[in-house]
Amino acid sequence: MEESSLCPPTIVVGIVQGDRLTELTTGTDKEFPASVGTGDKFMSFIEKELIPYIDATYPTTTYRTFIGHSVGGLTVVNTLLHNPNLFNSYVSLDGALWWNDQKVVKEAQVILPAHKYKGKKLFMAMANRLERGMDTLSVQKDTSSSTELMRSNIAFIKELAKNKTNELGFKYRYYEDDNHSSVKLIGEYDALRFVYGFYKLKIYDSELKNPDFNLESLLVTHYKKVSEQMGYTVKPDETQVNNLGYQMLRTKQFKKAENLFKLNVANNPGSANCYDSLGDFYLGAGIKTKAVECFKKALTLKEIPETREKLGILLNGKGTGK
Questions:
Q1: Residue 211 binned pLDDT confidence (cut-offs 50, 70, 90)
Q2: C-alpha of 288 from chain center
Q3: Which residue has the higher pLDDT, 291 or 320?
Q4: Which segments of the chain belong to CATH 1.25.40.10?
């Protein structure tokens, strides 16, 4: 999804449970009386050990998304209710909200109206667990254990619908053609599209062809809004801007190309490639002195054979810049 500019670069952290039923639940359930959930201990590990380790080891940001399936989805919802600031977005995939006589649904009745969730998002995926002849309305009157998961999710969704003023960004989808196992893939994809719905930059062909349209301003404005959503500064992708700049250069929209290449240099002052590209613009526009300056600057940052070749030709008609 990152390559399609649908979401930012993302580090995926997966945790293998020794016993999912124990680690991803709290308390007990009548169907599993021998299992005593230690979910609070598990979440304490994530908050106090895992997240600090990831932050110290990898180039992370402050934006985090928590995704879980089945009892993992139960953990996601529990965390949203009891520790909402631990993550920015929450994704429950066919969550086992039936656990412990739907305790999490009952807690939601009290917690959701009393809290504000500004900037937080929740996506819920619900798989088809209907018996033949049932629909999502009739299943709510059913009392069998086979529909308990679906009924508990519907009950939670109803609680969410009652509390539209708590500022929680919420969406759910019912996947008629998917079961408990298959809903994971499509549900996670749709969840990320929802979570990062603000991220994708849309540029119309008419804007690309219009020499008076300010592409630079579009990029700056868009990524300012993205930064506000993410909670930290997000700059336009270097490759994305470079490609747009060369596209404008090929169509001889020189002003648009110059602004884009200059924007890339301003955002990435340590990138030899950005200076090389700006040099290509000046070369294409016939401003050779500035092209020389840019190629020289690029070579102070990184030795690029192609840049050296172009500089050499400009300086003395030969393939070296030495």
A1: very high
A2: 42
A3: 291
A4: 212-316
Into which CATH architecture does domain 20-195 fall?
3-Layer(aba) Sandwich (3.40)
pLDDT in tens, 178-205: 999 999 999 999 999 999 999 999 999 9
Q: Which of 316, 321, 318, 293 is nearest to 305 (CA)?
A: 321
Q: What is the pLDDT of residue 3?
A: 52
Structure tokens given for 10: 């993302």
Query: Which CATH number describes the domain made up of 212-316?
Result: 1.25.40.10
Long-range contact pairs involving 146-149 (C-beta distance under 8 Å, separation at least 24): 148/98, 149/94, 149/95, 149/96, 149/97, 149/98, 149/180
The beta strands (E) that lie in the chain are given as 26-29, 32-38, 65-69, 89-93, 121-127, 169-175
* Alpha carbon separation from 44 to 19, 39, 47, 79, 184 (Å, rounded): 17, 8, 5, 11, 25
Least confidently predicted of 112-116, 207-211, 290-294, 316-320: 316-320
Domain with CATH 3.40.50.1820 in the chain: 20-195
CB 133 within 8 Å of CB 160: no
| CA proximity to 67, closest of 141, 124, 140 | 124
pTM listed for this prediction: 0.88
By the 8 A CB rule, do 147 and 139 touch? yes
